[in-house]
Amino acid sequence: MVMTSRARSNDGKFRRRLPSVVLVAVLAATTAGCKTTRSTEPDASLAMASARTDADWRSLAAEWGERHRAAPDDPGVAINYAQALRGLGQRSQAAAVLEQASIRLPKNMELLGAYGRALADVGSYQQALDVLNRAHTPERPDWRILSVQGAVLDQVARHEEAQRYYATALRIVPDEPSVLSNLGLSYALSKDLAQAEATLRRAAARPRVDARVRQNLALVVGLQGRFAEAEAIARADLPPEEAAANVAYLRQMLSQQGVVQKPPQPKRPATSAGRG
After folding, report:
1. pTM
2. Percent of the chain beyond pLDDT 90?
3. 11-257 has which fold?
4. pLDDT tens digits, one per residue of 102-155
5. Comparing C-alpha atoms, which of 45, 90, 56, 46 is closest to residue 98?
6. CB burial of residue 258 (10 Å; 0-12, 13-18, 19+)
């Protein structure tokens, strides 16, 4: 059920997206821990996970589109077709595929979960929340869906409510890094950068953590004015020149907007008024 995204982006993409990077990162990180939906084909998950180029995604979209036309009532095929479309950047079309599939199979919770995420991906946040509420039940909560619900709530600035969803998810999967990462970003959106950093450090300390968690940590450290430390964290997953360029641009943007939190300065010893 993953909508995968790349941990690395080139400097141009970073510069275009940075003003809204926290909002984007919340939703992207949410889906990082989910599994690719299995279909009747044993190699479906492997093919989706290994797709790297536009040509890969075009090939997968053509393949799964053909399978979807042949078996429109197969939810796994619909989900994988939508994922391939999303890999090509065709997010509205992906949502449309899942909408039609969910009309045919209105009680398939896995399908509803994928459709809810697709709606959030195109900015239909209230509709996404409505669909996601039907994608699991209070008796059998799905921590991945809870995390997505939190991410959608963060997108509409309902941060305290979002944090309650993350807390519920963490009661099911304590220390799950994808949920901790979302929670940390939620704190950042709430302007509680100290709590955001502490939560993201907790996530980054987990084994086999997604590289995006460290990049989110680097972002939050940079937002507090600790640019050298942010660059050092970013270098764990990015080439040195890219990490440096990203942090330099972050510094420039925050300086222009006047929102950076400066690190505390050491106090100077008091001097006597009588000294000349």
Report:
1. 0.77
2. 66
3. 1.25.40
4. 999 999 999 999 999 999 999 999 999 999 999 999 999 999 999 999 999 999
5. 90
6. exposed
Q: Which SS3 state, helix, strand or coil, does residue 19 take?
A: helix
Closest CA to 113 of 89, 136, 143: 136
Structure tokens belonging to residue 120:
């959030």
pLDDT digits (tens, 9 = 90+) for 17-43: 443 445 444 445 444 434 333 333 434
Q: Identify residue 143 by its one-letter amino acid code.
A: W
Q: How far is CA 229 from CA 28, 56, 109, 203, 263, in A?
A: 24, 37, 43, 17, 12
Cα separation, 167 vs 233, in Å, equals: 26
Cβ-based neighbours of 236, under 8 Å, separated by 6 or more: 211, 214
